[in-house]
């Protein structure tokens, strides 16, 4: 009997910890053809597959499966059929996943068709190697070494993505440097594109709207200026000559000070269409971000809707509007973005954030599949009941030329890729849901734990329970009941509910969002407030707008609620708030106990790394609870319920904490 762990583990293998012993012999693999992609599929099988023979079959008749595949099995062999080679590769990873999770491989009859055509990671990586909102070390891309020196991690990255069906990547930050489009950088990009291609991954770039002026010396970057159009046209020709299957552009324009078409009195549609027309002959697309807000009198939650709804139907068919899951900014919980479904004639795609900018970064355990699912399953009522965001974006309700889903990556050069061993599960979960948004958070956690750690039920079950409750726990100790954006400015790590930045933009300060006063707390978005509720379809506008019917987990998002308001469980709002914060703290302590009991099941390094992160999380939870309750108590003037653990910090001391988290733009 071979001992379970022959070598120490550091997390570098992610969920791809296939058996170390050799797989099946090459002659037991039947596959016609000799392409780089088929050779990868063969290599994965000869390296790791322990079962019967495998036949890989290209079948054009299955073309409605797109990138998908069919798997059938008999005692002699497993047959993977697909219309494209990429489907065969995904099918091979599927059977390896079944093997690794100890699934029954008899009488398989599986048909898979991806929920979205484009399943894309957005890297917020800068050319200097820093990563905006990155908590796992420097960028994976070594621009200064490319094109000559190639890191082995580039291929490992492509393999990890292919194993969960991710087929596209944006290499650089949405706050894009025009230099990304310089000839010397495009040659570096080509090297990455060549490595990714056999794994079915297309490369995209974020582009800066003022590139023609900065790089090409045009007088301006007005999308209607013929010189500007000519510059983009020549640039596209240059890109496609190097990278024939280049995916297209991601654009952040006229948001947070980034240049855009509005600088010239043009609309988002003018800007997007100019690029779309230039990419069209090559089959490229434009993903235009709807994350726009400017210092205006309007509630920030309303701005994307106000800017984009009037442009519905004015975008070319190879433009897709990329919309953050909520209307503010990747909060632990937000109401869903009302722009979903409001655009009737324009393709829409969700943008999630895998990197935990607002959920404790690489220090807190927060499994995000429940957050992703909450958004995808939200009913917009855009076409009546059942108009979920999943159905609006996957082509079910709005048949479009192209469907897509994206997420901001949490990947860096740390040995374990994501900073926290458990943060790997969020990369994994996004890939699995992009492939099949009907999977449950529980199914995905189950697969990931078995593949990443062990399939022993004594480990899997308690750890899965911890993961499934973890996002709600974070909400409880940070911002329960619909509170949002009460983070310290700049780095978004700890609490700063007192933050009121003098002379700064009001919509960057926490007091703008929580509105606490002697009367109560919360942002009034009802008809008598900012009327953001009017952007939702009926009956949601009435449900959210009425304090009695508004879901309590969003009550402070939509209402300014009196401290003594009676909640459904009979507690006053103030007491409810106190119990929520306390429950978040208690939950993290339970996670510590759960994890400590797991020591005998896994390797020492990963065990102790997670253990030390949980200690930080437990301290941070108390910091959040004390900061928020002590500060809000200055308005509520009510005692913290006596059966709750007392604050251990003084408000004055907490106000002095200043973290230096490095530079973010």
UniProtKB/TrEMBL annotation:
GO molecular function, one term: xylan alpha-1,2-glucuronosidase activity
Segment forming the signal sequence: none
Limits of the Glycosyl hydrolase family 67 catalytic domain: 100-417
GO CC annotations on file: extracellular region
Domain of life per record: Bacteria
Biological process annotations from GO: xylan catabolic process
Keyword entries, A-Z: Hydrolase
Keyword Ligase attributed: no
Domain Glycosyl hydrolase family 67 C-terminal: 418-643
Entries under InterPro entries matching the protein: A-glucoronidase_C_sf, GH, Glyco_hydro_67_aGlcAse, Glyco_hydro_67_C, Glyco_hydro_67_cat, Hex-like_dom2
Pfam families: Glyco_hydro_67C (PF07477), Glyco_hydro_67M (PF07488)
Residues the record marks as active site: 256, 329, 357
Gene3D superfamilies found in the cross-reference section: Alpha-glucuronidase, C-terminal domain, Chitobiase/beta-hexosaminidase domain 2-like, Glycosidases
PANTHER family found in the cross-reference section: ALPHA-GLUCURONIDASE A
Name the UniProt record assigns to this protein: Xylan alpha-1,2-glucuronidase
Species of the source: Chryseobacterium hagamense
């Amino acid at each position: 009997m071979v001992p379970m762990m022959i070598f120490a583990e550091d997390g570098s293998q992610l969920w791809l910890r296939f058996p170390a012993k050799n797989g099946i012999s090459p002659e037991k693999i039947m596959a016609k053809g000799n392409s780089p992609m088929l050779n990868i599929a063969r290599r994965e099988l000869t390296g790791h597959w322990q079962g019967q023979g495998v036949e890989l079959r290209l079948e054009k008749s299955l073309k409605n499966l797109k990138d998908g595949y069919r798997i059938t099995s008999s005692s002699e062999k497993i047959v993977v059929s697909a219309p494209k080679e990429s489907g065969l590769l995904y099918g091979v990873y599927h059977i390896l996943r079944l093997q690794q999770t100890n699934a029954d491989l008899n009488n398989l009859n599986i048909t898979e068709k991806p929920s979205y055509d484009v399943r894309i990671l957005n890297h917020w990586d800068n050319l200097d190697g820093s990563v905006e909102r990155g908590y796992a070390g420097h960028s994976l891309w070594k621009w200064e070494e490319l094109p000559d020196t190639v890191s082995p991690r580039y291929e490992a990255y492509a393999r990890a993505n292919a194993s969960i069906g991710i087929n596209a990547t944006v290499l650089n930050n949405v706050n894009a440097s025009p230099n990304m489009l310089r000839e010397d950088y495009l040659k570096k990009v080509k090297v990455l594109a060549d490595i990714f291609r056999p794994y079915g991954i297309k490369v995209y770039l974020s582009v800066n709207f003022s590139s023609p002026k900065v790089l090409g010396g045009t007088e301006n970057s007005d999308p209607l200026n013929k010189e500007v159009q000519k510059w983009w046209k020549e640039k596209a020709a240059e890109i496609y000559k190097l990278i024939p299957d280049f995916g297209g552009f991601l654009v952040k324009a006229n948001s947070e000070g980034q240049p855009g078409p509005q600088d010239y009195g043009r609309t988002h549609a003018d800007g997007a269409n100019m690029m779309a027309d230039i990419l069209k002959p090559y089959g490229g697309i434009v993903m235009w971000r709807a994350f726009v807000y400017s210092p205006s009198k309007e509630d920030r939650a309303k701005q994307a809707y106000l800017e984009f709804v009037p442009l519905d139907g004015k975008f070319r068919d190879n433009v897709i509007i990329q919309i953050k899951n909520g209307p503010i900014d990747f909060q632990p919980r937000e109401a869903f973005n009302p722009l979903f479904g409001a655009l009737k004639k324009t393709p829409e795609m969700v943008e999630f954030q895998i990197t935990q900018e607002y959920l404790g970064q690489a220090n807190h355990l927060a499994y995000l599949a429940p957050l992703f699912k909450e958004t995808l399953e939200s009913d917009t009522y855009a076409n009546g009941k059942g108009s979920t965001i999943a159905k609006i974006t996957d082509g079910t309700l709005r048949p479009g030329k192209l469907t897509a889903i994206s997420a901001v990556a949490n990947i860096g050069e740390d040995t374990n890729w994501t900073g926290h061993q458990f943060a790997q599960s969020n990369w994994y979960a996004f890939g699995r849901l992009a492939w099949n948004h009907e999977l449950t958070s529980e199914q995905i956690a189950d697969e990931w734990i078995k593949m990443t750690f062990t399939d022993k039920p004594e480990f899997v079950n308690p750890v899965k329970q911890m993961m499934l409750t973890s996002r709600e726990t974070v909400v409880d100790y940070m911002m329960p009941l619909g509170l949002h954006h009460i983070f310290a400015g700049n780095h978004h790590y700890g609490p700063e509910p007192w933050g009121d930045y003098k002379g700064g933009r009001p919509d960057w300060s926490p007091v703008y969002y929580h509105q606490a006063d002697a009367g109560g707390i919360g942002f009034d978005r009802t008809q008598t407030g900012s009327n953001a509720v009017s952007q939702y379809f009926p009956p949601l506008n009435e449900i959210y707008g009425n304090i009695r019917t508004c879901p309590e987990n969003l009550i402070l998002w939509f209402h300014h609620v009196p401290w003594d308001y009676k909640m459904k469980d009979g507690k006053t709002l103030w007491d409810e708030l106190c119990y929520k914060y306390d429950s978040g703290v208690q939950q993290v302590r339970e996670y510590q106990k759960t994890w400590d009991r797991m020591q005998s099941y896994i390797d020492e390094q990963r065990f102790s790394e997670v253990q030390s992160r949980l200690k930080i999380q437990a301290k941070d939870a108390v910091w959040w609870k004390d900061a928020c309750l002590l500060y809000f108590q200055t308005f509520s003037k009510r005692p913290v319920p006596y059966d709750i653990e007392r604050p251990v910090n003084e408000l004055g001391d907490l106000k002095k904490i200043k973290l230096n988290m490095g530079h973010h733009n």
